[in-house]
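Morning F.,

Quick status update on the modeling queue. The single chain you submitted on Monday has been processed. Sequence for confirmation:
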Amino acid sequence: MPVEIIPVKVPGLWPITREVGSIRVAGRLIRDLILERIPEIPEGRTLSIRSDFLPAPEFAELITAGTGNCVVRDPSDGADLMQLTLPGASGAPTILPIDPGSIRLRHPWDLLALNETLVGALDANCLEGTVRAGATLDGFVRLGRGSVILPGVYIEGNVVIGENCKIGPNCYIRGNTTIGDRCHIGQAVEIKNCLIGTKVSIGHLSYAGDSVISDNVNFGAGTIISNLRHDGRNHRWLENQAFVDTGRRKFGAIIGEDVHTGIHTAIYPGRSLSPGSATLPGEVVSHSK
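Structure tokens below.
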């Protein structure tokens, strides 16, 4: 194939442990989003690209139309993100830095930002599922086959909902939110600006804002994720024993795969739950676990 997507796992995405190209954002696999940005490559040329790098379409066109071998390298860590090889070309490849319009997925909030961009760009409804009478869609919604939005649900803004989901009744979903396949968002749940994976159940009377929730997660009733610091400053994320500025004033939690929370769990903003972990009923998650 003229284009090779190189699978990678990014430690900085912890507690999200999946290979990056297999993560879905706005209902699409990241590797498919990358391929959409690559123009047709002239015969004989080959292009390899890491699954954590989404080149801007203009940058991808510039690279693929080049006159010699080249490598796109991130100077911050020396990673070779994209490489073009021409037949018969010799000599050392030209080294190019990342352009400002391209995206490198380094941290969980990068996934959240990508989801915001893609879902926010929706400009029409696509309703393959069922919207019951009494539900309100105040934005553009993409609803998958077999999914149902029950009475009393209010959707404000753009939302992507996968296949075979049950939403409601009486939910409030807003921001630029993606909900994966086979999810259940229960009675009187509020979801704001989240990226939610496959087979996630968020029990009634729960709240999740500005968060990434991985596959096979179950929230007990009344689970609340806080997303705002009282001092109004940007949230910080602990990585390799150092704090990293997320650049986000509102930032909730990053939940790994197969997590279960007990009823009335309260999660501080900017915290994470490791894959397979659980909380007790009434537990306050003040530190990542």
